[in-house]
Design goal:
This protein has 348 residues and is mainly alpha-helical. It contains 20 helices and no strands.
Length: 348
């Protein structure tokens, strides 16, 4: 290759690389500008809807008030406060959320009125709003809301969640957790029981008392809707209790979602006899969807042992098990191309 040809070739390569780099950067800038433009247009539309007040479509007005927050809300605070007297509970709910999410003294009187609103939707929006941008300054308003008679389970738990996030010290946070834990133990009120458990698992999943609550709920098969969350939270930390009781939970649970969750976390929990658990679970499984889940989870633990088990399961299939055979081949392909190692062989 002569010198001119070499220079020309290098120039072409440089241009191609520059085009690729410029294309990616230009694409990012265009996407960013498009999003910012859409947001600006949305704000203009929301302000226009707000200016129409009660004459606007209630759904549109609800959305506009919910979206107008921060600095934009402060510029429209007076208009939003006036709408606290709306005949529409949806509009009042949006106002309650908007005002509660701010810490503006001008909104205090309207908030106190909305706290005592007869509609649960309004009060629950207010409770969630108090949890936005939590700080110690919000605590008096949150406690005032908790003192209102007649608030429902949802509003109460949302308010305690806001209080937990706003509490500045570990001692104050622990006191809130204790209150929520007492709610989770109220067997006569299953709704409050469930709501408190979900809040605790979101707020403090690593807290020892919450961990004990999660273990107890799985042992007693309480709150089937919360079981998947409890299972995942415990599996992530490779909880020793869940590792030891994994097999018995698999055998005793009759809830589909709970059982699927147990299968899905094997690669995170890493019980000592995981391969035997998977093989036994696959052999005994009667649900076709869960049968596929037993195969799929193997792909999350790539290595020789995973390949050996897939081969073993393949030999157990009947000619009519086309879906299972296809899933095994798919999982073998995933393992073959996976850049990852078996997570259970890695120390934490």
């Amino acid at each position: 290759m002569n010198r001119k040809t070499l220079i020309f070739t290098l120039l072409v390569i440089t241009i191609i690389l520059a085009v690729f780099v410029f294309r990616d950067r230009l694409g990012f800038v265009v996407r960013k500008n498009t999003i910012e433009t859409q947001q600006k247009i949305q704000k203009i539309n929301d302000l226009d809807v707000l200016a129409q007040g009660e004459k606007a479509n209630q759904g549109s007005l609800y959305g506009a008030i919910m979206r107008l927050s921060g600095g934009e809300s402060k510029n429209t605070l007076g208009t939003i406060i006036e709408l606290a007297n709306s005949k529409s509970s949806h509009v009042r709910a949006a106002v309650a959320f908007n005002l509660a999410s701010q810490n503006d003294p001008q909104a205090t009187e309207a908030l106190r009125k909305l706290m005592k609103d007869s509609d649960t939707l309004v009060r629950s929006h207010l409770a969630r709003g108090l949890g936005v941008n939590p700080s110690a300054e919000r605590i008096p308003m949150i406690r005032e809301f908790l003192g209102v008679s007649g608030i429902g389970d949802t509003e109460r738990v949302d308010a305690f969640s806001a209080l937990y996030n706003a509490s500045p010290t570990a001692g104050e946070k622990d006191a809130v957790l204790q209150q929520l834990l007492s709610f989770s133990n109220q067997e006569k009120n299953t709704n409050l029981n469930y709501l408190a458990a979900m809040a605790l698992m979101t707020l403090a999943p690593q807290n020892e008392k919450v961990i004990l609550m999660m273990r107890k709920s799985l042992t007693n098969h309480q709150w089937q809707m919360t079981a998947p969350v409890a299972i995942r939270n415990l599996a992530v930390k490779r909880d020793s209790w869940l590792q030891e009781n994994f097999n018995s939970l698999l055998q005793s649970t009759k809830d589909f979602d709970s059982k699927r969750s147990l299968i899905e976390v094997i690669h995170m929990l890493c019980p000592a006899d995981r391969w035997a658990i998977i093989e036994k679970g696959f052999d005994k499984e009667t649900d076709p969807t869960l049968k596929l889940e037993w195969i799929q989870i193997i792909g999350f633990m790539p290595g020789d042992e995973a390949n050996s088990l897939l081969l073993k399961l393949q030999k157990k299939l009947k000619p009519t098990d086309a879906n299972l055979s296809s899933k095994i081949r798919e999982t073998e392909g995933i393992i073959k191309t996976s850049p990852f190692k078996d997570p259970c062989l890695q120390q934490r």
